[in-house]
Inverse folding.
């Protein structure tokens, strides 16, 4: 696996674009298009929120019932959620416009929105945006960059990744982009994510690969514990790599899973690290747990705690808060067996042994907790399973951003 | 039911005290005692956190196995959690000292701690504090006030309440005090709560009344979603009112339940309103739900959301965030049936009808959301059950307090 530049336009046959459509934001790109020159197998995972945005309802239909997908239209600023029939009609009109200008079937067009919940999208601006997008789409790094920038809301950095692997003697590329910064607690995040590949793979296995992969990637991050109404992760595979189509869980499938996992993990970590107001990426890794699920629940509980998050912001190794968050996760364990370490890229230190504080050096702890990437490792000493979860610190800026989001 | 002044010393035979013991804080009261002139029936509910502080383990023993309880020793500053055998031994030494100076059995002494997790208590300061407490305890309003002040950590106001009822021709008094401001998400709250009454009631019914009552009171509040290692709520009943002992669920029991519910609800609301950094009490009432449990889950999800909490701080009626928090609560419902109202003591306004924003006046909404007590009413329109949950806004000060708690 070779890490390369770029994102959704890295794989063969994929084009992208980002333009200014003035949906809510002014003087910045706020609509994106993703397009494949040939029809794609599509797989998707969506929010588990009972309140599902109109684009989520539309995309579920397309992913489940259309043989192929070929384009995605994304807007930032308004989420098109809690918008009833009018909101769903807007999705249809967006798809119809894209189908017309791209000369593809309406039911091969996916749509995605992110922003304020409850407001109706201005359909005329959206359809005008679709025309502009179609006119400028391209398969360049710059076009991919424009698309990912157009999806951003409170994001401070565009997030993308790409890798090359070899399958059946052919070079296969997997690339992706995502946005998301607040209302991030994916239980597939408002995360929107799009992964493209030129791999040839059956629809069923593409969906299965995605479903398996999100469990340990996007579903293991949290910025604020709020599962959005719009969370969407789509994978498009257009087959242009020319490998023999993957139709069973063989070695080739495993290679793709590894590449997909790299892209999803990279994007998920970038999203957590760019959480609203965040100054640090906060990773928790639970090791030697009895079961994989227990490791996931415990690691996620630690990164989700307001108190551990505030502790990271304060650069204060408050072991008690970590123990507390482990304790209320819903897993039964013996607290007096737990060891805890904290580490940065430069230092590592044991701060808890058998459930009690070690006599650790506060100065070193403060140094570790001041790093841009702080890791807490929890050793349960009762099994062989491990899992990681990613979050960020809780800061004044998180409160500021969210006390004043709509204005 | 008549609301009266005071707290834990309101009922006959109860004395209290608060003194400076310099456990961690300097120049302020940090140890409290609660004492009954005669032995009491005791009931208690404790944290569901797997990581239980030493005083929680001690008190569970006393409540479950001792025939009576007669005193409670409380300290603020250090939580005596994650302290192993040494921490439990400290509880025993505290109880032994209290037993000696008060001339009561050791197993009738309850202990409670709140503060930093992981540090050991200074036993010598604790036992010296017990002596001081015994010397100054009294049955006055002032003594009750001293006790509740001594329990405070990041609390900004002391929290107490008392009522009188009549049972069997006798005046019965129920009073209580509590502390708690952060790490508040009781799953019966660090909340410590103590309720005293001179009612005569069997131990079994006292425990049952408490267990029933916390479900809709202390367990329905949240400041930050973190369930503490030390949550403790104790009720002591000393029988001095002289009513015929309550031994069955009759009309007298219902009268006591009503009084207990008033005390617990009042204390729980005060705790939520005094959440760390809070500027407002945030109440959510879900009405016309299909089941009581559904109403509880939905209302609690709304007050627990970081985004609705930041919205209250920003005085911004962001209906989408309320709908979102309802949607991920874990209850299956039709979003297009939901009506939402916001209200203060002065104004009330519908902000959502059938899942969509109403054309409401933003200025009035901002006025309502600027009140010191903001209520959100969610009408599910699908049943007859209702529940309320209480939280507070998420502010810069919450982050400040918790980025810097141990120093």
């Amino acid at each position: 696996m070779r890490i390369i530049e770029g994102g959704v336009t890295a794989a063969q046959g994929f084009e992208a674009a980002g333009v200014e459509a003035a949906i809510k934001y002014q003087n910045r790109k706020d609509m994106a298009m993703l397009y494949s020159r040939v029809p794609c197998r599509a797989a998707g995972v969506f929010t588990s929120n009972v309140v599902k945005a109109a684009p989520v309802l539309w995309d579920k239909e397309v992913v489940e019932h259309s043989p192929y997908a070929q384009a995605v239209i994304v807007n930032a600023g308004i989420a098109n959620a809690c918008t009833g029939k009018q909101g769903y009609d807007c999705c249809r009109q967006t798809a119809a416009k894209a189908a017309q200008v791209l000369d593809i079937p309406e039911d091969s067009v996916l749509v995605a929105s992110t922003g304020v919940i409850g407001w109706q999208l201005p359909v005329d601006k959206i359809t005008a945006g679709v025309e502009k997008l179609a006119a400028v789409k391209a398969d360049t790094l710059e076009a991919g960059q424009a698309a990912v920038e157009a999806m951003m809301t409170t994001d401070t950095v565009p997030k993308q990744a790409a890798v090359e692997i070899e399958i059946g003697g052919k070079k296969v590329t997997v690339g992706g982009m995502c946005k998301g910064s607040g209302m991030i607690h994916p239980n597939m995040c408002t995360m929107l994510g799009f992964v493209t590949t030129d791999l040839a793979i059956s629809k069923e296995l593409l969906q299965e690969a995605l479903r398996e992969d999100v469990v340990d990637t996007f579903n293991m991050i949290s910025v604020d514990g709020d599962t959005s109404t719009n969370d969407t992760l789509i994978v498009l595979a257009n087959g242009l790599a020319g490998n023999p189509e993957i139709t069973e869980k063989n070695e080739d499938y495993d290679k793709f899973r590894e590449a997909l996992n790299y892209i999803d993990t990279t994007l998920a970590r970038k999203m957590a690290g760019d959480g609203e107001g965040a100054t640090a990426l906060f990773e928790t890794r639970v090791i030697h747990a009895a079961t994989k699920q227990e490791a996931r629940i415990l690691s996620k509980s630690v990164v989700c705690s307001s108190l551990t998050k505030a502790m990271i912001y304060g650069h204060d190794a408050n072991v008690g808060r970590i123990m507390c968050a482990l304790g209320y996760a819903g897993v039964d364990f013996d607290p007096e067996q737990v060891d805890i370490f904290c580490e940065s890229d430069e230092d590592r230190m044991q701060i808890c042994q058998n459930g009690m504080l070690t006599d650790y050096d506060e100065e070193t702890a403060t140094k570790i907790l001041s790093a841009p990437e702080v890791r807490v490792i929890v050793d349960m000493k009762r099994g062989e399973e491990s899992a990681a979860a990613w979050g960020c610190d809780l800061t004044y800026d998180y409160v500021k951003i969210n006390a004043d989001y709509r204005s």
Summary: The domain at 2-273 of chain A is CATH 3.60.70.12 (L-amino peptidase D-ALA esterase/amidase). Residues 301 and 328 of chain A are 8 Å apart (CA to CA).
